[in-house]
Protein 1
Amino acid sequence: MKKILVTGGAGFVGSHLCEKLLELGNHILCIDNYITGNKKNIETLLQNPHFEYKKHDITVPLFVEVDEIYHLACPASPIHYQNDAVQTIKTAVLGSINMLDLAKKIQKPILQASTSEVYGDPQEHPQNESYWGHVNPIGTRACYDEGKRCAETLFFDYHRQHKVTIKVARIFNTYGPNMAIHDGRVISNFITQALQNKPITIYGDGSQTRCFCFINDLITGLISFMKKPKKTTGPINLGNPHEISILELAKKIIKLTQSSSTINYKVLPDNDPKKRMPNIELAKKSLKWEPSTHLDEGLIKTITYFQNII
Ligand code: NAD
Ligand code: UDP
């Protein structure tokens, strides 16, 4: 039985990852400071004797003996990461240094939950791992984007300099059960608004695009990546290449929820990327991974989750 550390394990992605890793017969140590996570996400896991939870802020060093580290702790929704921008960048940078120091000390592999935001408002479409990105370093999204870019630099420097085994996954927009109602991300906002027949808030004219990956697909990708030999460092894009505009997404959610919501156009936030789509050829080839959940199928599961908690 492996002992696995999951930072940010009480969050949306982390809670699913802990659940799956437990199911696969591992012992999990979940650490989180609950800044955007929720104890409800791990409530059922707490009954399992192989699930340990420790409240800890990763900007403070930590020493634990584990076999693998999945490093996810960081707020991911624009409203949350901009709410305390300095804390976000501290979490991304100091938190990564602390976790990399741990990986170096115990000589175990560490996976970084990086993001498509490292590509910024991309000028290449779709985005390949070789693209260096287009990020405004002083904009309101920079605390997250540049924090995650710096974290990637740290991962590769610890790998080159200290021979730490690293796995850098660039995660594209992911959705599913356990997203927080007030998370502020587009799918949770649209579904909660539609279910309550409230106006759907579209920022800008809704022509911007995103690609949405269902959580179960992402989790399979992360676990496959960790299993790969030392030389597979990434970065590797993990996402669903099905591209959709935000206006089309709103219409789809209205239809699936049979809602009477209208659309309320609001100001587009600064530096909001106009389009985003992963090239996943590398993940297909090296991880033998690709997402299999159709957007409608994943949305229906997510709608059911929100129906139960609203
Ligand atoms: P989330 O906000 O639901 O989860 C993040 C978790 O980290 C929360 O439980 C939060 O309390 C915890 N956390 C934050 N700062 C911490 C700190 N200083 N110390 C300890 N715990 C801390 O977000 P998520 O969607 O689950 O994202 C998880 C990871 O995946 C993040 O690193 C994010 O950047 C990355 N990611 C997510 C997406 C996505 O679409 N969900 C896309 C790209 C990358
Ligand atoms: N968005 C929107 N209405 C909302 C929330 C988000 O129109 O209520 C838009 C947002 O401006 C962006 C897209 O949806 O263009 C995806 O936003 P999200 O915050 O989910 O992710 P990110 O911008 O980080 O990809």
Protein 2
Amino acid sequence: MNTKIIRIQGQGENFSGGEDMALREAGEVLRRGGLVAFPTETVYGLGGDALNPESSRKIYAAKGRPADNPLIVHIARTEDLARIADRISESAVQLARAFWPGPLTMILHKSQEVPYETTGGLDTVAVRMPSHQVARRLISYGGGYVAAPSANLSGRPSPTSARYVKEDMDGRIDVIIDGGDGEIGLESTIVDLTVSPPQVLRPGFITRDMLAGVLGQVDLDRTLLRADSGQAPRAPGMKYRHYAPQGELTIVSGQAEQVTAYINACAAEDGSRGHKVGVIATDEELPGYRADLVCSLGSRRDEEEIARRLYGILRRFDDEKVTRIYSECFDDTGLGQAIMNRLLKAAGHRLVVLEGNQK
Ligand code: AMP
Ligand code: MG
């Protein structure tokens, strides 16, 4: 298959006539059952018509995604929720009002219109209304309901730029829309509203505190930050080792100087055994590391920047064929919770806690 690449530079009202026409054509591709990758404010999505079972099957095939890992349905208008969700609760209405359009996915009871191919066999459906103007326009032109997981091959980091989508999806899908880099860089927060109290199944930019500010009590799926709970996470996809770099990743927690010394010692030892060693650092500690490739996520104080850069750095280590990676650790509060969730998953929960530090 020849994958067409479309570049869109405008935003919303500023789309040029040509850009609008290109988005209209991409929408037609979706209506006819084809696949289109597109930018959102979180990461790039791999879209197909959510109400067409054949489109959903194609998404799983293009990604190599396990069939029990459900897709998120993207909509462009809140009123479109009614067709795909049953028993829409007051909580859902309140969260939509507070956070849509934006990086929040809600789990609701599905209507009969949503095929089981889209929900991985579940009676619930995940729904999100993105804020990215290119995504919204495409969804509207594509019929209003676009199932879209992240546009990476299963097991690779989610793509934060069209370049990474092309790396994974060239020749596998009909169209890639290049709309620049993701603003947030981590996937949406997922909150399950079919349980009481509501539960966060995947942490993201919209934090549990922000949700609780609207709904009162909101729980966190406790399996998320721990490897040893012995229970399967409630979002089927969270059990897979997503976000996995090809090199073995270890997270090191402790006082800054201890962490630097420990990582440098490991890097020297690994290097002597023929490994190519990478370090995921912050600006503050960057000069202290000695390894083959040291990349900074930005300042430790700027969690939004860290979130934006994380997946790109993991991909860079893959490109450079790094075989061992060490990363600094982050506080797991606020946005840090989403950052640590993704890092721990990428590391297969390999975490070294240095003496004198309780974290
Ligand atoms: P992705 O779009 O690649 O970020 O993956 C979608 C995530 O949403 C996966 O972790 C899924 O397991 C989760 N998800 C989608 N639908 C549901 C659902 N009905 N119930 C629970 N989790 C879901
Ligand atoms: Mg994904």
Protein 3
Amino acid sequence: MEFIFATHNLHKSEEVSAILGPDYHIKNLREIGCPEIPETADTLQGNALQKAQYVFDHYHVNCFADDTGLEVEALDGRPGVYSARYAGEGCSYQDNVLKMLEEMRGVTNRKACFRTVIALIMDGKRYFFEGRVEGKILTEQHGVDGFGYDPIFKPLGFRQTFAEMSSSAKNAISHRGRAMQQLKEFLDEINSSR
Ligand code: ITT
């Protein structure tokens, strides 16, 4: 089965191709030369659908998109849907991490969760899948793998941050991994009945 994954983020597209495995051929937006898609909704579901709908409207193919947010309890769920631009428009992953460490300095409640919503448009119909992982924001960075907030997020029940884990270990428990597993089960079922 072939899909366009509506992302320019190569970290995400590598994670997703590894989770879906060889039965699925995934192309990202860089590979098809698609420009940046606006993300103007105020929910993860809204943004995921906006990206998938753009691709469907312009390329008329089966496609999916994800939107992910880091929700920090002591910050009333911020940065959430604004996680990419937390430190300002055009900021880097490192800018976001440093801003989070600064805003959380001295805060004792470190609870946070990552949440991913996937919007799939298949044969013109829309479907949604969600995954989340609970954890803690650390007081300093650990590890160099992964991307985004991975060096300061330690999932509950684990001693390492996402940035200290192999990508397969992260995928097995992560927000995106869990949402993608649901998508995969859904697609596997369709695949087996075709
Ligand atoms: P696309 O919209 O092109 O897919 P993006 O990087 O903007 O890529 P999102 O809007 O879904 O992706 O993610 C918002 C931000 O959340 C992202 O820029 C990262 O900083 C962070 N993020 C997303 N997934 C993450 C993960 O698995 N680990 C750590 N941080 C993550």
Protein 4
Amino acid sequence: MKIAIDGPAGAGKSTVARKLAQQLGFVYIDTGAMYRALTWKVLQNKIDPENVEALYELANNIRIHFEYHSGQQKILCDGEDLTAAIRLPEVSALVSTVASHPAIRKIMVKQQQEMARNVSVVMDGRDIGECVLPDAEYKFYLTANIEERTHRRAAELSDSGFTIDYETISQEIIQRDKSDSEREVGSLKILAESIVIDSSNLTIEQVLQKMLAIIQGE
Ligand code: DC
């Protein structure tokens, strides 16, 4: 079974997707983490994020994979653990630009489809229902209002030791949503078959129970 969870930044997709996968015994694939890992490499190698040829070369030559250690998911790129690095504010600021190039998305989508082959998965991102898993049995679109998403991102950053003011986080999210929604290929959108869940006034547990009820046909 394939389950797609798409939606804007900070809607709680990763937390819900991870828990849903745990409950169902499925593999969880965080596609945002993959675009972030590539972006970290772009920064490390001082590549111009508008230089599609250089980006293409990089994306084709790095190996991104996930590992699981006592229930925790780690993302590795060429053997290097990037789990913490991909959450740095400089990565968040650049990732949407890197992800905007159709040639780069083609490489990433192919890798994501390979990861999902022959296994049951919960995959979260922006274009999962439309491009990566068009045949997914369930396509959720998880959203929340901007205030709630900003609060959640601020709390997440604070847990990781960053203090960034509320307004800066809010602007970064709005900017990223705009760029993720307006790109030509793999843009963020609600599909005709999407099951929309607004998590503004729901806890993670309530969102999870809603999804489980739908999947288990209650
Ligand atoms: O889910 P996230 O905030 O970690 O995603 C980071 C960025 O990666 C997001 O702003 C856009 C990009 N992304 C994408 O273009 N397609 C996906 N399937 C997942 C993420």
